[in-house]
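Dear support,

I submitted the protein below through the web form. The confirmation email said the job was done, but the results page showed an empty box. After a refresh the structure appeared. I'm attaching both so you can tell me whether what I see now is the final result or a partial one.
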Amino acid sequence: MSLLLSGAKTVTFAGTEMQCLEVYTGEAYTININFTNSVGGPVDITGWSFDTTVAYYDVDTISYPAATPDEITLGNITVYAGAPTQPTALDTVAVSLAGGTAYLYIPTDLADGTGGRPNPALVQGKADPSTLAIVTIEITRQDAVSLLDNVSREPLGFIVRYQ
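What the results page shows now:
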């Protein structure tokens, strides 16, 4: 399973290719998620559970190579030194179980300098350095044949910018 975001660019982080969007401090985002099968039909997500978490990283440089417009190059990525708490409103919520739809909510306080979270307000606009927030949706669902729980983790990158 992989998540594809409309308007996203591709980032490879620690060997994992993921979709990446830029978000701005003080703004909230609702991202629609549609679970579909190989022919585009909806997947029934009844009984699935979602656990959404975020981890923070400091990034020295961010560039957008002209030769590969759908990619972002990140330089000097280090784990954020603080002990951040999870934003309380960060969540993935099912909307239509039979229709296979859900949404991911990115709250205004994804990185707001409180709760041990980084403060991208120290960086103006798109200047370097910046904060990279890796939001991971852990999806647990029961296998139809074995009846065992299958667990997948879908990482999404968010470059947090000061507005």
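Response: this is the final, complete result; the empty box was a page-load delay. The two ends are 33 Å apart (CA to CA).
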